[in-house]
Amino acid sequence: MPLTDDALQGQVAIVTGAGRGLGRGGAVGLARRGATVIAVARSRDELERTAAMAPAGRVVPTVVDLASPDAVDALVDRLEAEYGQVDVLINNAGMLPFEPFERTTPEIWHLVMQVNLHAAYQLSWRLYPAMVARGSGVISNVSSGAGVRPFVLETAYCATKYALEGLTKSLALEALGHGVAVTLTTPGAPSKPTSMTEAEFLALPAEARARYADDLDVAEAFAWIAGQADTRLNGRRLDLHGLGALVREHGWGVSTHEALQRVDRSV
Prior knowledge:
The protein has helices at 21-32, 44-53, 69-83, 106-134, 155-175, 198-202, 206-209, 219-226, 240-250, 256-263, and strands at residues 12-16, 36-41, 59-63, 88-91, 137-142, 180-186, 237-239. It is built from ten helices and seven strands. 46% of the residues are buried. By secondary structure, the protein is an alpha/beta fold. Strand 4 (88-91), helix 4 and strand 5 form a beta-alpha-beta unit. A seven-stranded parallel sheet has the order 3-2-1-4-5-6-7, sandwiched between helices.
């Protein structure tokens, strides 16, 4: 199956946490299908490497610190002025400090809440009204196993992912009558730890690196989600690696029905 086509030609997408991991796969996947992808992260070096993996000129490296609400608002203001509208939003950015609860200080707590949860809310809140007015748009939020079960040393991270699941499912209900698709995703296979930089990953022994799926294994999954306007997906929780494999096996014409049969991980 060709990995590229023009299904998203003319569309503008934001992918956060696009410098590595799932976000890198999402940015490259959407760019392969023709979208202009605003790839957001803190590290320009990592964003440039993401852009180099995609068709030339399709990924726009955009350095933004999502810990700053003012920076998030400035990003949306700039994109609306430059592009007119944003069609797809992939909220993937996250941070995962491994700390016991007694060392999860208010400073750590608020930082994790801002990056993992509030930035996703803020971007969605800014972009959703225009999507409703147009009667189209896609918002997809990346969760994890930590959104449905607890883990030790991850109280702040789990709290944000549980909240992100509730936010997404509630917004998905409101969006049903407006033609806006709002979905959740979960990795579905071992992925690089959220807060591990690319340099830290490359410093691992080869056998440790081999435990994790390749960043681009989810490219087709994100690209398929971005191209779906079917609100039967609303509130569903899709397995990214499973969906990517399904699209690579059967092509871009995978139906909503088949996807929900095969890779729906809703709880």
